[in-house]
Amino acid sequence: MKVLVPVKRVADYNIKVRPKSDGSGVELANVKMSMNPFDEIAVEEAVRLKEAGVATEVVAVSCGSAACQETLRTALAMGADRAILVETDVELQSLAVAKLVKVVAEKEGAQLVICGKQAIDDDANQTAQMLAALLDWGQATYASKVVVADGNVEVTREVDGGLETVRLALPAVVSADLRLNEPRYATLPNIMKAKKKPLDTLKAAEFGVDVSPRVQTLSVYTPPERKGGIKVGSVAELVQKLKDEARVL
Amino acid sequence: MKSLIIAEQTGGQLSPMTGNLVAAASKIGGEIDLLLVGASGVAAAAESARAFPGVTRVLTSESAEYAGFTAENIAPLVVRLAGNGYTHVLAIASAAGKNLLPRVAALLDVGMVSEIVEVVDVDTFVRPIYAGSLLAKVRCAERVRVLSVRATAFPAVAAGDSAAPIEVVAPSGERGKSKVIGQQLAQSTRPELTAARIIVSGGRGLGSAENFAGTIEPLADTLNAAVGASRAAVDSGYVSNELQVGQTGKIVAPELYVAVGISGAIQHLAGMKDSKVIVAINKDEEAPIFQIADYGLVGDLFQLVPELSRAIASA
């Protein structure tokens, strides 16, 4: 079983991003970029499936500029076997990424695609579901446990009321939630080895799909800051403030 | 304008966030048709749904394939209905809504706008990005605008005495892609987290599941509050995942949010900073939670929280 893992290059988790000075977007010049943390969890899960003898090959794919090669090398260092860059300088939104990854999934004959549940930049939480729709495959989002057996995948999902287990016939799309696993760090020997693993570049323009942005960003700005309040000295003072000042008790 | 809003129901009980969904659709204006699907209970939920002012029609589809609210089975129905001239399709950004809507959008071949917090006009919406540290104003001029709605940003419309007509629509059939085979849903007599007027949340400072239960729950009982938790508390196994408040958990905005032993990581703040009044109890006076708390109390939570429970009970 071949597993495909789409990965996205985003501003590093620890960076506090700012709007551009003209408010037209997010300032990403000279910002440290990393793999989307949810995608790291997806890569880890795919690699564990291979280590368990369930998956035969793990292929990482990233759509975007040439700089995404760096993100793909991280996936290779974590244990992916091969990587594919679908290169374009167009600003890609979820639907466009889903269309491009669909082509790759079909060409590769992938039986399982594991995505991160959302990217921490645009927080869209769309690509996995859109990809499943376009492939006409089942989808199991927000996975906290994945078990592949007998041509099915059983996925425990984090839902509003607790947990839910779904069974999907393969091929299928899974999206990884926080508690699915703890991704490994790429070790130095593995980083060195990853440099020799195959990384193919395909041109998005040759895929014959419409990747034009469908949603236009008009402006990006900082939300109004919540003002800090006061420190109270005792429980009695707190209760009095909540009753008389805030009037919530 | 004509909106199709997809409401959720369990066993005939309408989701408490339905009023927020109606409110968001009302900002767009025009007709609002409310869709209810399920394997059972749809008719009872429809009776509640028809009472919301602003709802033009209630569309119902009850069929076995909607058990488990699987996106694979519901999306084809929504896509078929969307062909009837709807300009907008909306659902609450709940786990179910977030799971369903992108599948609908892709089948319609339209871009989607997630977690809107403001309707500027029929094509223009505001949504948080980067865990809520920034807001983006976006324009979506697709023929159908597919939008998920952050409930807390739209104060709920209360059900009134209107009686919108109920129309039954044909189901779209079992797609055979997925099946819900198990559920572990929390049983609680407390108010639901996203609908509660007061929330008491605990974090890593509680130290253990026993301490969490022994400290947070009595205060929640005293206040008739829902119980929440930080990601750290969930990851450490103090409580189960459905109680997590934050960017990747529940987004809440109660009248009173009491954060106990929670340092205030950005992803937690993203889930609760729109609460009306925030109280923080933490031993570390430098904890970031104090920067947004209306009332901060520095000290040992194991002493302060029981004291607070007693003070409120006797007040």
TrEMBL record, chain A:
<dbReference type="InterPro" id="IPR014730">
    <property type="entry name" value="ETF_a/b_N"/>
</dbReference>
<dbReference type="InterPro" id="IPR012255">
    <property type="entry name" value="ETF_b"/>
</dbReference>
<protein>
    <recommendedName>
        <fullName>Electron transfer flavoprotein subunit beta</fullName>
    </recommendedName>
</protein>
<feature type="domain" description="Electron transfer flavoprotein alpha/beta-subunit N-terminal">
    <location>
        <begin position="23"/>
        <end position="211"/>
    </location>
</feature>
<dbReference type="Pfam" id="PF01012">
    <property type="entry name" value="ETF"/>
</dbReference>
<keyword id="KW-0249">Electron transport</keyword>
<dbReference type="InterPro" id="IPR000049">
    <property type="entry name" value="ET-Flavoprotein_bsu_CS"/>
</dbReference>
<keyword id="KW-0813">Transport</keyword>
<comment type="similarity">
    <text>Belongs to the ETF beta-subunit/FixA family.</text>
</comment>
<dbReference type="InterPro" id="IPR014729">
    <property type="entry name" value="Rossmann-like_a/b/a_fold"/>
</dbReference>
<dbReference type="InterPro" id="IPR033948">
    <property type="entry name" value="ETF_beta_N"/>
</dbReference>
Automatic annotation (TrEMBL), chain B:
<feature type="domain" description="Electron transfer flavoprotein alpha/beta-subunit N-terminal">
    <location>
        <begin position="3"/>
        <end position="184"/>
    </location>
</feature>
<keyword id="KW-0285">Flavoprotein</keyword>
<dbReference type="InterPro" id="IPR001308">
    <property type="entry name" value="ETF_a/FixB"/>
</dbReference>
<dbReference type="InterPro" id="IPR014729">
    <property type="entry name" value="Rossmann-like_a/b/a_fold"/>
</dbReference>
<keyword id="KW-0813">Transport</keyword>
<dbReference type="Pfam" id="PF00766">
    <property type="entry name" value="ETF_alpha"/>
</dbReference>
<protein>
    <submittedName>
        <fullName>Electron transfer flavoprotein subunit alpha/FixB family protein</fullName>
    </submittedName>
</protein>
<dbReference type="Pfam" id="PF01012">
    <property type="entry name" value="ETF"/>
</dbReference>
<keyword id="KW-0249">Electron transport</keyword>
<dbReference type="InterPro" id="IPR033947">
    <property type="entry name" value="ETF_alpha_N"/>
</dbReference>
<dbReference type="InterPro" id="IPR029035">
    <property type="entry name" value="DHS-like_NAD/FAD-binding_dom"/>
</dbReference>
<dbReference type="InterPro" id="IPR014731">
    <property type="entry name" value="ETF_asu_C"/>
</dbReference>
<dbReference type="InterPro" id="IPR014730">
    <property type="entry name" value="ETF_a/b_N"/>
</dbReference>
<dbReference type="InterPro" id="IPR018206">
    <property type="entry name" value="ETF_asu_C_CS"/>
</dbReference>
<keyword id="KW-0274">FAD</keyword>
<comment type="similarity">
    <text>Belongs to the ETF alpha-subunit/FixB family.</text>
</comment>
